[in-house]
Amino acid sequence: MSSILKKAAVVSIPNVRQALLRSNPVLASSLLAKRAYNSKNGVEMTVRDALNSALEEEMTADEKIYLLGEEVGQYNGAYKVSKGLLDKFGPKRVIDTPITESGFCGLAVGSAFAGLKPVCEFMTWNFAMQAIDQIVNSAAKTHYMSGGNVNCPITFRGPNGAAAGVAAQHSQCFAAWYGSVPGLKVVSPWNSEDAKGLLKAAIRDPNPVVVLENELMYGVSFPMSEAALSKDFVVEIGKAKIEKAGTDITIVAHSRSVGFALEAAMLLEKEGICSAEVINLRSIRPLDTETIINSVKKTNRLVTVEGGWPQYGVGSEICAQIMESEAFDHLDAPVVRVTGADVPTPYAQNLEAYAFPDTEVIARVIKRTMNKKIGA
Amino acid sequence: MYARVSVRALARSIPSKAIKTTPAPLAYSAKAFSTSALSMDSHKKKERVKVHFPGALDSHFSQVLEIREKMEPIDTFRVMDTDGKVLDKSLEPEVTEEFATKIYKDMLTLNVMDLILYEAQRQGRISFYMTNAGEEAYIGSAAALDPEDEIFGQYREAGTLLYRGFTLDQFMNQCYSNDMDLGKGRQMPVHYGSKALHFQTISSPLATQLPQASGAAYAIKRSGKKNCVMCYFGEGAASEGDFHAALNIAATTSCPVIFFCRNNGFAISTPANEQYKGDGIASRGVGYGMHTIRVDGNDVWAVYKATQEARKIAVEQHKPVLIEAMTYRVGHHSTSDDSSAYRSKKEVEDWKRHDNPMVRMRKWLESKGWWDEARENAHKSTQRTAVLKSFAAAEKRKKPAVSEMFNDVYDKLTPNLIEQKKELEELIKKYPAHYDTSNYAKEN
């Protein structure tokens, strides 16, 4: 676990905005547009605040729920996600732990076995590797191995995947690793509504759930519907959302990549090239293959987008499942995966930008796929 | 991992003007020269000045350059000698005949069950087994617990389950992974679990149960119940990172948990003197700021009394306690091990003869007139018959229903599991010759 990260977290937010705007002029304009958009037609909320409300609402409703992790209490959270919670609920419900992922994760798992409902925060999912045995061998497998006698109603959460300028040991995406484990549910929110609804669903779910947030999204604002602001708003785990309907090609993405995919789709629609349907996975496990299959049957083309590594990744799994399903007969072109580069994340800003897919890369791949035709 | 700044650069950056002579340390206040009884002594030696650093508030400054290798070794508490004689009359156990003989009878039953199941594995009837030979005295610790104290074991504490009332049938059913197994046939033999008896299902990865025990203890503290958690592990598992994480977090989070280390001298073939260089596991407890005791693990009454005291501390003060029980593993690590590969048979025989937990307890019972040869033979014989009976019954039973394979991955089946289950059902129906399910219990 690194304390360099604390500094990066504070510094990264303005830097991230600059980096985003520099590399994505289209996104920049739409972001700016969103920010200039006031509450004329509703409330706007950052992903961070959405997570904070989810935690606060659930902890108010059920006193068995408690939060633990490094810096979650007095510091208000390394990324301020747990701001104000220690003040409201006290040290019995919000616990600052020593630096020991295996220790506090194990403690959380044990307390879940004994009837509490912990929310275990990892400063980033990279550090959770030091506790992965507790997550996989204990939390995920115990209900099964105990013959259904021991329950583990735990929620693991924290930022996952790309950050900005924090190099390889702070930037790995764990969607594929945890997504492969039976016994775990894995969700990956993109916007504020996803974040609030999925975290609430995860906390209420009696199974162990992995919530993969994204640091770069914490400060981004999104409009929140009336329904999303309610205390009982949950997003169903295992169901994807069609963010933008389209007819010519299906783009499936999760987390931050959804934003880039939408940008690429809007860009190509404006240029008159194609009408893309963008699916926000929301859940990595269970995977909503039904929504993807139905979309492919309509559009006949599929591109997957993720920030994680290509080998054995989320896109690989979607390809395999689509190929094994009836959707295979509807494909007019091979499925293509857009993924992070197959390297440990570089530190230098220019190299880091090349290591993750952005709007331009996705648009290029969509165009290429649109030009393909099986048999031609 | 802080950013490394060159010390020279740091020194250079401090202007010499800024360094002024520090004023006399705060300790040289009127208090230091009080005429209390304590300081009468210190007039003779130089006054000890307390440290103010937030990380070591109990320390004192010293002008002695001493890099210590060891502290005073921790004593091993015992009640009886190897002949079962109580060494200090004030420690004579105040227990009823029923209570004391139950412990010994369970030790005997455990022995009998171990022998038969070990042989069963050798004959290929069960896949795996681990015996408790030489360590039976740990049952004394179970006797000091409340039935609702949660137990997290490692794998060599079946005696605690036996003490709490797990039946021979239940033991056998788990070892045979049949349809009556509480674990539904999903675990290796000896990975017992019982919700009713507050015994957490055994988990194979070593030491993962330690931080979990801290967590369960935290949950108990939150609930207000006057219970604690008992967590067993071996001296080898204490090398794992989880051990250190667990003890530190139990101490800092104030969890009512007793960490009971069975130091039996071996971790498969690794002897204790290669497992660690310090003064056993007990020295670590003190290091983590918790109450610690080392006991003679072959002495039922020492183990019993230590656990009693530890339980009081845990439940009344919400503080963790470490008990290191010194013992000797007479048997092999498991059926996958042949210990003659790394120790002499003579060494094992010597231990069995000179320091035997069964013999010590038996002699104590006999000295009270509560046991004799006849009762010994009778109990062994009835237990052997009972074990063989359970064994035969368990062997005959079918395995759990095939559909159980898909249950309990989650609380409810997910769409992909429902799909797979349906596919399997159709295959079994279509090709009964290739999918023989006669050995499996019928579907519910």
TrEMBL record, chain A:
Its EC number is 1.2.4.1. Keywords: Oxidoreductase, Pyruvate, Thiamine pyrophosphate. Its cofactor is thiamine diphosphate. It catalyses: N(6)-[(R)-lipoyl]-L-lysyl-[protein] + pyruvate + H(+) = N(6)-[(R)-S(8)-acetyldihydrolipoyl]-L-lysyl-[protein] + CO2. Residues 45-220 form the Transketolase-like pyrimidine-binding domain. The keyword ATP-binding does not apply. It is an enzyme of class 1 (oxidoreductase). The pyruvate dehydrogenase complex catalyzes the overall conversion of pyruvate to acetyl-CoA and CO2. SMART domains: Transket_pyr. Pfam families: Transket_pyr, Transketolase_C. InterPro entries: PDHB_mito-type, THDP-binding, Transketo_C/PFOR_II, Transketolase-like_Pyr-bd, Transketolase_C. The keyword Oxidoreductase applies. This is Pyruvate dehydrogenase E1 component subunit beta. CDD domains: TPP_PYR_E1-PDHc-beta_like. NCBIfam families: PRK09212.1, PRK11892.1. It comes from the Eukaryota.
TrEMBL record, chain B:
Its cofactor is thiamine diphosphate. One of its GO terms (molecular function) is metal ion binding. The keyword Metal-binding applies. Its EC number is 1.2.4.4. Keywords: Metal-binding, Mitochondrion, Oxidoreductase, Potassium, Thiamine pyrophosphate, Transit peptide. It catalyses: N(6)-[(R)-lipoyl]-L-lysyl-[protein] + 3-methyl-2-oxobutanoate + H(+) = N(6)-[(R)-S(8)-2-methylpropanoyldihydrolipoyl]-L-lysyl-[protein] + CO2. Pfam families: E1_dh (PF00676). One of its GO terms (biological process) is branched-chain amino acid catabolic process. It is found in: Mitochondrion matrix. InterPro entries: Alpha-ketoacid_DH_E1_comp, DH_E1, THDP-binding. SUPFAM superfamilies: Thiamin diphosphate-binding fold (THDP-binding). It comes from the Eukaryota. Residues 105-402 form the Dehydrogenase E1 component domain. One of its GO terms (cellular component) is mitochondrial matrix. The branched-chain alpha-keto dehydrogenase complex catalyzes the overall conversion of alpha-keto acids to acyl-CoA and CO(2). It contains multiple copies of three enzymatic components: branched-chain alpha-keto acid decarboxylase (E1), lipoamide acyltransferase (E2) and lipoamide dehydrogenase (E3). Belongs to the BCKDHA family. This is 2-oxoisovalerate dehydrogenase subunit alpha.
